[in-house]
Prior knowledge:
The chain is mainly alpha-helical. The chain folds into 2 domains: 2-70, no CATH class; 71-104, no CATH class. It is built from 5 helices and 2 strands. The protein has helices spanning 2-11, 16-26, 30-40, 47-70, 97-100, and strands at 72-74, 86-88. The protein has a two-stranded antiparallel ribbon with strand order 1-2. Helix 2 (16-26) packs across helix 4. The longest helix is centred in the middle third of the chain and has 24 residues, at 47-70. The protein is elongated and about 60 Å long.
Amino acid sequence: MMATGFFVGRRLGMYPIESAIVNACHSGQGGTGDIAILTAANRMQLMPFAQIATRIGGAITVTLTLILLAQLTPIRPDAGRSGCCLTVSSWLSPGTLSRQLHTPPLQATHVPIGYC
C-alpha cells in the first residue's frame, strides 16, 4: 500500500514519500498507529492528513466489507456441489438470513410496553 501511495503521490505532483507515509497510516492502529508511524518518520506535521486517512479509509473498508459479506450465501446442496462453499449472490435475491441459511427463525418475544 505504501508503494501505491508513493506512485500515486508522484503522479499527482505531491511529495511521494509523504503521501506514502499518510497511506501507511490508513492501515495503522488508529490514532496510536498514526502517532507511531509519523514519529518514526519524523513527520508529525502530517497528523491531520493521517487522521483523515485513518477515519475515511477505515470507514470505506468497513462499508465495502459489510456489503461483500452481506452478499455471501451458502451454495445449496441440491445444486450438485457441497454445501460448505460460499458464493456471491445477486443483489436482488429475496429472503431473510434464516431462510438463506436454512435455519428456523427465532421465536418472537413479547415485551410489554407501557403500563397496560
